C-alpha cells in the first residue's frame, strides 16, 4: 500500500470519454484521489453528491477531486451524467491503479479510499475506510487538506 510521504504511482486510466489519462498529468496541482467501489451504488452516489455540494471548499484549498473506480469508462460516463458531476471520474477497469495504491479488494473492486497528492506527486494524506459501505464526511477530508 502507498503510504504518506511516498510518490503516488503514475498509472494510466480512462476518462469518461475513453481517453487515456496518466495520474502524473496532475502534477503541479493538489489532487484528492477518491477510490470508490461502484458507480450507481447508494453510498457512492451520496458521496459524489457531497463532493459536488462542497466542491468550492475543495477548490478554495486548491484541491481538485478525481474519482476512480474499477467500472468501465462507459459506466463512469453514465454515472457522471446522472449526478451532474463536473469533476473527472476515471476508469481503473484493468485494476492497475487500485493494485498500485494497495486498495484492490480480493473480490475485485477497490476499497473506498482517499489519497491527497501534492503538486510534486507525493501522498500527503490517506484514509482507507474500514468498510466500503461507509464514506468519510467531507469536513474530515477538508480539515486534513
Question: How would you characterize the overall build of this protein?
Answer:
The chain is built from 5 helices and 7 strands. The protein is α/β, with parallel strands linked by helices and 145 residues long. It has a single domain, classed as Glutaredoxin (3-Layer(aba) Sandwich). The longest helix is centred in the N-terminal third of the chain and has 12 residues. The radius of gyration is 14 Å and the shape is globular.
Give the H and E element order: EEEHHEHEHEEH
Enumerate the spans where pLDDT stays under 50 for 5 or more consecutive residues. Answer: none
| CATH homologous superfamily descriptor | Glutaredoxin
User: What class do helices, strands and sheet pairing give?
Assistant: alpha/beta
End-to-end Cα distance, whole Å, is: 20 Å
Query: Would you tell me the overall average pLDDT?
Result: 95
DSSP strand content: 15-25%
Largest sheet: 5 strands, mixed
Offer a few descriptive terms.
five-stranded mixed β-sheet; 5 helices; single chain; 145 residues; 7 strands; Glutaredoxin; two-stranded antiparallel ribbon; alpha/beta
How do you describe this structure in short?
With 145 residues, the protein is of the alpha/beta class. It is built from five helices and seven strands, in the order E-E-E-H-H-E-H-E-H-E-E-H. The strands form two sheets. Strands 5-4-3-6-7 form a five-stranded mixed beta sheet. Strands 1-2 form a two-stranded antiparallel sheet.
